Amino acid sequence: MYLGFEGLSFSQRGKTIGLEVSLADILCEELSKELGREVKAEVVNQEWAQIIQELRAGKYHAAFSAVIPSSLYSPQNISYTQAYLDTGPVICCQKVDGKPAKPVTAEVSSLVDKKVVVINDPAVRRVLRRAGVYVPGDEGKTDLERAFPKSATEAELAKAGLKPDLIAAKEITQLDEMPEIYKKLAEGEVDAGVIDLGIIWWVATDSERWSKKIHAFPKPVGPYIYSAVTRSEDSDLSALLDGAIGRMKRSDKYAAVLRQWHGGKFERSLAASDFLK
Fold it and tell me: Which of 134, 143, 139, 95 is nearest to 116 (CA)?
């Protein structure tokens, strides 16, 4: 796990906590029942950008850290389990006196002519493009990893067979570090953020530092899933994890963890194959 995702997996007062940390503990309880011996999670802190590369190098047995199935990783010979979290990015903004301080809503259409900050992640870019979002000033830019030209949004919509209304944002800033994003939101430097619900929910509701300064709407602007990842040759482990995840998702403990860290759960029944197309 990357222990820099406050709300998802992070350290607080010397203890490792968060949504994924809690789910890993439940997952190990399920594995313990099946194997007839105690299984505990050993959390290895790993910078997120190298998480698949270091998995392949044998640094850990499985990646369990906001990995969305993507063909981007396919050449690295990995396998995905079923989703352990059905989620998506939500709109958030500065909070003042307990209320949203910016003219945005849970609807992606409210991002018209707004300055928006997002995490630098291909999955977020895809969700926004499929929602029709583009930046007029980005037309002509060829670096699609850092730009939202109208042509790229239209191409993504055509690929997906979608026809939503186009939404022209003023500016979309993509950052790697969550504290920088939180600061921009809390201080009103941007009109809105589009952040994974699993990361932002706790930050906006319970964080001592941020909850009075950041508001998060609970409705994702588009879907994606988190899956556990193993090396392709570790098929037995992948099968064990997959079965344990299925049982975990039916448990009361799972529902309680999602209420605390995610605001609740969704039932879209999306599979890894849906994201690999």
Answer: 134
Q: Is the pLDDT assigned to residue 224 strictly greater than 80?
A: yes
The whole-angstrom separation of Cα 72 and Cα 154 is 21
Structural domain tally of the chain? 2
The residue written with tokens 């190098």 in the block is 57
> In a 10 Å sphere around its CB, with 0-12 CB exposed, 13-18 middle and 19+ buried, how is residue 154 labelled?
middle
Which residues of the chain form beta strands (DSSP E)?
Answer: 4-5, 9-12, 15-17, 78-87, 89-96, 99-100, 115-119, 133-134, 167-168, 171-175, 192-196, 214-216, 224-231
| 210, 203 Cβ separation under 8 angstroms | yes
E strand spans, 115-223: 115-119, 133-134, 167-168, 171-175, 192-196, 214-216
Q: What is the mean pLDDT of the chain?
A: 93
Lowest mean pLDDT among 41-55, 135-149, 192-206: 135-149
Query: Which pLDDT band, with edges at 50, 70 and 90, does 271 fall under?
Result: confident
| Residue range(s) defining the domain that contains residue 145 | 89-216
Name 107's Cβ contacts closer than 8 Å, sequence gap at least 6: 91, 221
Is residue 120 located within the same domain as residue 212? yes
